[in-house]
Amino acid sequence: MSEVTITRAVRMPDQFRIARFLSNPKLGPRLLFFSGGSALNDVSRCLKRYTHNSIHLVTPFDSGGSSQGLRLAFNMPAIGDLRSRLMALADETVLGQPDVFRLFTHRFSKESGQEELAGDLEAMIAGIHPLVAVVEQPMRTLIQNQLRTFQEGCPPTFDLRGASIGNLILAGGYLNQNKQLEPIIFLVAKLVGVLGHVKAVSDDNLHLAAKLATGDIVVGQHLLTGKEQAPLTSPIEEIFLNRSLQTREPAVSVFPERNTALVQSADLICYSPGSLYTSLIASLLPRGVGRAVASRTVPKVYVPSLGHDPEAPGMTLEDRVQVLLAYLRKDAGSDCPVERLLNFVVTDQGTEEDDIAAVEQLGITVLRLDLISSKSDPYYDPVPLCEALVSLT
Asked: What PANTHER family does the record point to (predicted)?
């Protein structure tokens, strides 16, 4: 098999390609996203209109939020971001499984007592809770089995308040599948009719750690984001994978072969918006990611986050691009040409001319488009961003 490179002119947005994909999303392009967090979820929901073939490689290294309790209770990878991306891509039409979707997106009340919530969980396992009773067989039995396994393995001190039912089902499935993520992600994708592909970027049960400019080591994603804890007072110098939350134990993770195959099938590779280090760079840390990206000749696009990122204070657009390239080259090789790793930066019209010029000096094309929904609270409008990405395929 040989690969042929074809060059074509692109009109942004390309109305012909957009109309074609809207008319038949089942034949839409294979856009591959490296990401974590929730920053891409609204875009993912919108993307279902254009393609049912998008690929999402999500980090399982978080140590805060909805995943924290489960990671501590079961010594397992983080599943919160995987669950939220699965739900973002779920078929929410009558052709999908709306009853399963409602169950997976339900959270226990934060105000209820533990005994009351334990009773709700018992009712779900028995199949008599209203959210479970309406689910058709055999899906209902599958869900009951995962919840039962979760309950049996759950420590008595586990706090059910605010717990996501989808996370509990995924945790039970992880235990049922000999502590493997991939089988339960596949099952949940089928249960909710995911219109795309969602995979963990790594199967390994690891944590994020960072070396700061001061030389200090900070272990745990929840301590790095500046959201659950106070922002770091020193810039991040290096981020790496670590075995535990207790001590500095650097670890190596290997990019699974199934993910390498997905990269090789992609029509476009996107480095997604989100926290620079704990969302984007974290998804590039497994060994093999950089080489897989460099070997695939398709458009490679970086969509930088809007607004203030507590992980990257004072960093310019060029600074963030250089960090992205540096981590890709750790695996692809220090001499890997820029064009094999990154071709476009898609950003809003408000981006400063000096920032654009600095990035373009690296040989990267900056596409400055009207992408922001609100100037007071800037975030990407999913429609023009999706249309920009599908236009580049």
From this structure: MATERNAL EFFECT EMBRYO ARREST 18
